[in-house]
Amino acid sequence: MLQTSSFGSEDCLHLNIWVPHGRHVSSNLPVMIWLYGGGFMVGGSMGPNFLNNYLYSGQEIADRGNVIVVSVGYRVGVLGFLSTGDSQLPGNYGLWDQHAAIAWVNRNIRSFGGDPDSITIFGESAGGASVSFQTLSPHNKGLFKRAISQSGVAFCPWAMNRNPRKVAEQVCHC
């Protein structure tokens, strides 16, 4: 699918953190970092993210699972994934945003009662593919212990742009 218009915003690099109700900060709870789907073209972590509806409640997951839940914002569409396939426009900025958020959570989650040695990243669709890509990156070594990819992995045909130069030229009308 070719996206020729830009959705989202570069002002999206936010985290939402939910802790189970009634827990003390020193609980040392496991942590789950959510990466949303949306075909790498749409989505968000700051409210309704699919058909103007909330698909998942971080608070509900935190309370039921007795875990800390973190949702991560990252750039999507051309702002996050446009590439020419070379060093001029390498792309994957959305994946780098995810990595930066994962690293931040690892460094700071103790302040919210989380255990940095018990972090799971999880996502569905493009978020699941993102989880798969994050597990393959050497930059994430030691930042999380577990990964759950739902309905998407790095090897899905839609997860990789096999001809980035052509797509970039179409987007730029070159």
Automatic annotation (TrEMBL):
GO terms for molecular function: hydrolase activity. Keywords: Hydrolase. Residues 8-172 form the Carboxylesterase type B domain. It is an enzyme of class 3 (hydrolase). Signal peptide: none annotated. Its EC number is 3.1.1.-. Pfam families: COesterase. SUPFAM superfamilies: alpha/beta-Hydrolases. PROSITE patterns: CARBOXYLESTERASE_B_1 (PS00122). PANTHER family: NEUROLIGIN (PTHR43903). Belongs to the type-B carboxylesterase/lipase family. This is Carboxylic ester hydrolase.
